[in-house]
Amino acid sequence: MATFTRQYRASALDDVEEIENYRPRGFHPVNIGDEFQDRYKVVHKLGYGGFSTVWLARDKLARRYVALKILVASKWPDCKELEVLQALVKGLTNHPGRHSVISLLDNFMIEGPNGRHVCITSFNYSPGAVAGSRRLRSDLALKFGKQTAQALDFIHSQGFCHRGES
């Protein structure tokens, strides 16, 4: 088995994913202005994680902004996240936590230089930056806590629980 040697070190201040994750079965390279499905135009990067990058995209058909999540190619064809989101869409619509859970709008596959990637679009729930203090006001913290508890109750009522992957 070959050992992996890191070739590039990003500054801790950059808050960017490791360039080495752009490899076969890894991240899909995306540029601002790229279009997917002749529908979603990438306008800004929202973030990344161990298994995906997330982009703000303009849905030209629905005329709204969406979050476009592109999973690493190693997640195809067995994408548990997509399966869970599809099941939650069919869940109880009158549950108070239903609207605090990411809602699947669309999903599709793309083929790229690093393999096949599952793509998921959802409403963009990004709250944006708040000027001033980095602390959350107490009234907002209470609302956030309540919505989180309701969302977890909804997810559990559908037979799912969250667990991290390692």
Walk me through the topology:
Blueprint: E1 35-36, E2 40-48, E3 52-59, E4 64-71, H1 80-89, E5 104-112, E6 115-123, H2 138-157
Antiparallel strand pairs: 1-2, 2-3, 3-4, 4-6, 5-6
Description:
The structure is a single chain. Helix content is 18%, strand content 27%. The mean pLDDT is 84. It has 166 residues and is α+β, with helices and mostly antiparallel strands. Strands 1-2-3-4-6-5 form a six-stranded antiparallel beta sheet, covered by helices on one side. The longest helix has 20 residues, at 138-157. The chain is globular. It has helices spanning 80-89, 138-157, and strands at residues 35-36, 40-48, 52-59, 64-71, 104-112, 115-123.
Radius of gyration: 18 Å
From the spread of the alpha carbons, the general shape counts as globular
Q: Please give the order of strands in the largest beta sheet.
A: 1-2-3-4-6-5
Given as residue ranges, the uncertain stretches (5+ residues, pLDDT < 50) are none
Record field, number of beta strands:
6
Largest sheet, strands/sense/barrel: 6 strands, antiparallel
Helix/strand/pairing class, anyone? alpha+beta
Mean pLDDT: 84
In whole angstroms, the N-to-C terminal distance is: 20 Å
Instruction: Note the run of SSEs as H and E.
Output: EEEEHEEH
The total of helices stands at 2
| Helix amount | 10-25%
